[in-house]
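FW: tagging you since you asked about this chain on Friday. Here's the raw sequence from the shared folder, copied in full. Didn't touch anything.
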Amino acid sequence: MNKQKKGMPISLTLRVMSFAGFAILACLLLSGFFVIKSVEQHFIEQDYDELKIIIETVEQRLDSINGNLSQAPDVLSQAISGHHGVYFQVETPPGTHLFHSKGAEFFSEITHPQPANRIDKSNLVSWKIDSEIYRGLVVDFTIEGIPYRVMAAMDMSFHLSFIEKFREKMWLIMLVISVATLTATWFGIYQGHRPLIQLSRRIRNIQTNQLDERIAPNSLPIELRELALSFNQMLQHLEDGFERLSNFSADIAHELRTPLTNLITQTQVGLTQARPIDQYKELLYSNLEEQERLAKMVSDMLWLAQSDNKLIQPASTLIDLSSEIKDLFEFFDALAAESQVTLTLEGEAPAIPADRELLKRALSNLLSNAIRHTPCGEKITVKIGQHKNHNVYIEIINPGEYIPTEQLSKIFDRFYRVDPSRNRISEGTGLGLAITKSIIETHGGRIAVKSNTARTTFTVYLPLAL
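HL: got it, structure written out here
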């Protein structure tokens, strides 16, 4: 039981939910990552623009003093008016303090990065002092021959706090969206599987006495139509097989009833009074004929059952068809002479691999059938040859009664007789053509029949290789 449970596939709903959940989670995580990165990039752009304005303003103010450094503190003190959380420091020459804005004392505590000669976003740097984090720029430039170094920085506390809260809210929103989306996905999958569930119920409710029922493919979604068509086809096969089995059971009961009735009747008559030995012998001979016919019928049925279950494995021997058919002509010579029928062979064919005994049995059934249905004084023609598709053919042509077209498709059925009124003893067991068809198909070939008012032709097609 544990092995079976381990090997059981997961349900379709769980499988689809797993893939959908993974896809949704991946999309949300990627979306959240890119949103946060976009917000961070936005703040970087914003900080850069702010720092650029500060440095350019400082540069303009320094340019306005015309090298008079004593005026620098007064001019620079108003440089960041209206800007909050922004700090700067000016050195001239670099390393010598000239001025710093209020709260910019921290510049003395940081390690200065390599200064840039121009204002550029790629030159942004970050500093962490105690618990505070700053983003800034360090730029060197020269005005009227005087070298300056400007360090500008912005307090990132507000941005970081905003991003942290934004991240928490965003993940919470994504969690809610994930749950809602997965719930909606589950509901959608359940609704999507409803036609499959309904189809399963309809299939489960079909009983053995309802094999004629069919599922309308047009009433189902496109994805299930192929399944419905396949199921209808299976039902058709089951119905045909069940019908054949029912007919076969009825036919075999009918076929067995006649010889069994004869046996019972003859035995009852023989037991009504004492009789001479010769009459008892005649009765036993008559019973023996019926018993042999029953034994042959049972043997034929057993062979057909084995053939249906692929238990017959034909041997492979190269057979000269012309020689085999001539041997059969000799075997049926007495029967043909009694019926005043002539047997002729036409054509040539290459040797084929086949089971000699099985093929001889199939051709014997066809020849005996042809002799039985050919009028006196007529000729039976057997033609052999090779088709362009490399199949060998054997045609057995006999003049006789016309077989209606609607009966041709049933002629290879078991116990089928074109004329049910004919004597059953002279007709055989009614399994000959069914056995012939099974033998030919076992060899990978096929058999066909056609009939008109002048003649009936059985054609056997056999491959050149098994």
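FW: The longest strand covers residues 132-143.
HL: agreed, and The chain has a mean pLDDT of 84.
FW: great, closing this out.
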